[in-house]
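Researcher: Re-running this chain for the archive, since the previous output was lost when a drive failed. Same request as before.
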Amino acid sequence: MWKYLSKLQKNLIYSIPASMTLGIIYGYFRDPTFLKSLIMPLTFLMVYPMMVNLQIRKVFSKEDLTVQAAAQVLNFLVIPFIAYGLGRVFFSDNQYIALGLLLAALLPTGGMTISWTGFAKGNVNAAIKMTVVGLFIGSLATPLYVKWLMGTGIEMPILDVFKQIFLVVFLPMVAGNITKTQLIKRYGEKTYTTEWKKKFPLLSTLGVMGIVFVAMALKSVTILREPLILVGLLVPIVLLYGSNLVLSTMVGRLFFKREDGIALVYGTVTRNLSIALAIAMTVFGKQGSDVALIIALAYIIQVQAAAWYVKYIDRIFGPPKTAPEVKLVSPTPVD
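Model: Regenerated structure tokens:
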């Protein structure tokens, strides 16, 4: 099972569109109403595994303060307003889709932030801290931002949002920390790191695919009646990620060394779409599928953007510094 889940995670560029396609087909030929009962279990399956490996103590370290501050300024004072502006331009007639774009921009960093930073040979420790800090701030700030920016246009149950954030973020966080503690206590730190640590994110991938399937099934009739709606949704998503990449790359290159700059890019461009999707599907009732639609599509663009960025990382930031090569002089052979 783990082998197949690993393949799904490594090929999100294919697995997410496949889940979307299957959901659309299922929702068109079958009544998808009963799938709503799966939203909370799938949400827990999606978020809880990410929390097991979360290193909460990193929040209290004093390392990388400058790059951490820059990341959070971009995450909460710049990027949400870019998303809000794009939503106003492209979705003035559908504020729930605009809300989905805003939610995708309000919750920065996830487990893949750390992974992509590692692939690009960036500062992984800084990425870990950005993930934890961004998750805490985003969880507390999201209801306030949504109420402030979208509250006049849609019904915004702010208490329900706080309640759902508690259920889909902080409760899994506590459960994940308990799980990690018990596993280390029972099997030891080494066994946890080599055997258990890599398995939990794979379960999260299964939850993501399940939620995407449900979201698409609930929206399938509308999508098949107006297939061009997907193209119209992709344009502002591409603009959001494109502007984020350009902005964070400029800041990273101008003000930080290579490793910190790479962490800054992935700590601001990579969003926690899993939690955004969970909030969309659990808070906004029948409009939740509208909110979730654009978030599901954002997975495709985010994975593509992150992967291509790694490919060209040396051209953008230059090659990583390596230790000077030590040449060993072989002794003269004896006949």
